[in-house]
Amino acid sequence: MANIILFFLSFALFAPLSCSTFHTLSKGSSLSSEKPEDVLTSPNDVFSAGFYSVGENAFCFAIWFSNSRTIVWMANRDQPVNGKRSKLSLLKNGNLILTDAGRFTIWTTNTFSLSLVQLSLYNTGNLVLSNMEGVILWQSFDFPTDTLLPEQQLTKNTKLVSSRSQTNYSSGFYQFFFDNDNILRLIF
Ligand SMILES: *[C@@H]1O[C@H](CO)[C@@H](O)[C@H](O)[C@H]1NC(C)=O
Fold it and tell me: What residue stretches are annotated with the Bulb-type lectin domain (predicted)?
């Protein structure tokens, strides 16, 4: 009997640790382009964030619908990183950076915080860097790629840029934004 209890106890203790997906990234930790299991998922499992293959040995840090793998956001669409030794890291100073093959910083949120911060993927598909008081330092919803999700706003500071093609996620030729005269424009 004691053995059985011990068995279930150890299962309860270790099952969450062996689970490959997680919801938040904390200070000092990173996601690696070399580990396909290094993916953040929203608590409702609808969205995933991680390194997405866009070509031979070329990866973009992206958010996608978990079941269809349809991309909704990309950090570095015009500068894919190497599949080896590339990382998304939440530094101790509160900055989130994407490094290519361990050397170059390709993309950064330019954030700074001495208090605890964490990166979370919300159920809405918003990737949010916030501190323990809930203050948002950076969020992907403020920097759309070519897609708006429900609850995501298009403002005077944001614009949508189409992809090159259905298979190439680089910036394409169509832009959708509020012009200076407050008119919503779709331009080529
Ligand atoms: C996507 O298109 C851009 C611009 O033409 C090009 O530089 C890039 O190599 C293409 N990427 C892929 C994966 O084909």
Answer: 16-142
